[in-house]
Design a protein that fits this description.
By secondary structure, this protein is α+β, with helices and mostly antiparallel strands. The protein is 25% helix and 23% strand.
């Protein structure tokens, strides 16, 4: 009798485990993100090609000087971030203090390659130089992925748009 009861409990537990679902169709949400990303690129940057990872970056002409930033350098940037919603509409979700008003207060500091920023920003920085201003289109795989941002404003599988201005680069110490 104990074996039968244990077997029934085990089967019930398995059925419960496999029947639990959050009801979210992640594949559908990801497909919608990619369709919105394509619509945005087709409308705003027709013919643009992404990097191998899927990042789109556009450097403004006449900005940037000196050596390209390397992994391990300390970088100080000013930025603004928008969440792309439907391929044509985006909402500002973050910026360094007063950046869009032309203020340059406290820059955001990080080291490319250290994994302290989203992958898309860390990759894009390695294509830039001090003084560069770039526009980035970062798909969710290179941003906040399936979970979105816990600090708000960026949902699951959401492409983000960034404007980044490299303020200062401190080269990595070499031995």
């Amino acid at each position: 009798m104990k074996k039968i009861l244990s077997g029934l409990l085990f089967i019930s537990g398995l059925a419960l485990l496999f029947s639990c679902s959050d009801g979210i169709d992640y594949e559908k949400i990801r497909r919608e993100e990619l369709a919105n990303l394509k619509l945005y690129i087709d409308n705003v940057h027709p013919g643009a090609e992404p990097t191998a990872s899927g990042l789109y970056y556009f450097n403004e002409e006449g900005t940037g000087h000196g050596d390209t930033i390397k992994l391990g350098d300390q970088v100080q940037i000013y930025y603004a971030t928008w969440a792309l919603y439907d391929g044509t509409d985006s909402v500002l979700v973050d910026q360094t203090n007063g950046y869009l008003l032309g203020h340059r207060y406290e820059p955001y500091k990080f080291i490319p390659g250290a994994g302290t920023s989203i992958a898309g920003l860390e990759e894009a920085i390695t294509y830039m130089q001090p003084g560069t201003r770039s526009h980035l289109v970062i798909n969710s795989e290179l941003a906040y992925g399936q979970n979105g941002s816990t600090s708000g404003g960026i949902g699951m599988f959401q492409t983000i748009l960034m404007e980044v201005e490299v303020y200062k680069v401190i080269p990595r110490e070499t031995e």
